[in-house]
Amino acid sequence: MRSSGDLGLHSLDDAERAAAAALPPEVRDFVAGGSGRETTLDANRAAFDALFVVPRVLRDVSGCTTATTLLGRPAALPVAAAPVAYQRLVHPEGELAAVRAAAAAGVPFTASTLSSVPLDALTAVGGTVWFQLYWLRDERRTVELVRRAEDTGCAALMLTVDVPWMARRLRDVRNGFALPDGVRAAEVDTGGAAHHRAAGASSVAAHTGQAFSSGLTWASVERLRALTRLPLVLKGVLAPEDARRAAEFGVDALVVSNHGGRQLDGAVPSIDALPAVADAAGPACEVLLDSGVRSGTDVLRALALGASGVLVGRPLVWGLAAAGEDGVRRVLDLLGGELRDALGLAGCHDPSDARGLRTVSRQQPHRPAPERGLSNASA
């Protein structure tokens, strides 16, 4: 296998094209697709592309760095790998290759409840691993997953709150998508439901309908907060009212996310929801951004609107499909280089400085993000 610097990948879009050539069409659709008419999937990118940064000049950026902290731990970039299920669909090593690449890049890796590699194998790599939790119908099993995350050394617990059930994803329905026999959730018994192919139906959706609870409430968050001392993150928050309430419940961080356009079709683009959520969360609750990030400039945009970092999902899967661990490393290398370029050209010494930048959209101007305890560059 070629080195990560010799893969012919010069942008995250290149990784997507390489993955499309390598994957079976139905697997490509499973990863790439959104829900319904894919309105929100498309809107995520359109919202980023409509957002412009007002750079500052005459600042010393000779020591420009992408280093920061995420959930209280050092990170080489304000980037974490988003939770993505069943990564062995796209490469035999699956999540194990991806977590090695994330550890080498110095960024956190978020292991999905539906990871196709056991959690202890991922944390054994030695990087920072967060565990993403779906609330299961069997609450005892949910508690067991929390304890497993603690016992295996996960650094944070990320509860996904926008999936009472899986939305109708038409690409999977049309493909009659089902998991191949060799790919299973390592931490949750999928039984046969996720592997039973049926015309005009998604077997993965059928399984999650059986396994996931649609009764997740703020009382569940309260129980989870009392159950663990790990930093608690809620993923899937778009409304400032929910952000405010999360902070009241002692949640440590939020992920502003519409699930990459895979849940409510027509939901607001995450980047558009970010400023109000960051304002409502207050300084004690960290805010991350997920859905649609495809470049270092996108990371800069998110930082300018109040995020402390972003989660990146599909691009890392494309890198994994294209070239395994080397492909994921290359995607993270590209993001890091693009972000350093964007920071320096915008007059920022480090990611915290980006909070002082003004942004303008085709719809309306945005004021600089609230300081949230971080220092801005001098004017």
UniProtKB/TrEMBL annotation:
Glyoxylate binds at Q132, Y134, R169, H259, R262. It is an enzyme of class 1 (oxidoreductase). Its cofactor is FMN. Keywords: Flavoprotein, FMN, Oxidoreductase. FMN binds at P83, V84, A85, S112, T160, K235, S257, D290, S291, G292, V293, R294, G313, R314. Its EC number is 1.1.2.3. SUPFAM superfamilies: FMN-linked oxidoreductases. Transmembrane segments: none annotated. Residues 4-364 form the FMN hydroxy acid dehydrogenase domain. InterPro entries: Aldolase_TIM (IPR013785), Alpha-hydoxy_acid_DH_FMN (IPR012133), FMN-dep_DH (IPR000262), FMN_HAD (IPR037396), FMN_hydac_DH_AS (IPR008259). Residues 353-379 are annotated as: Disordered. GO terms for molecular function: FMN binding; L-lactate dehydrogenase (cytochrome) activity. This is L-lactate dehydrogenase [cytochrome]. It comes from Actinomadura rubteroloni. The gene is lldD.
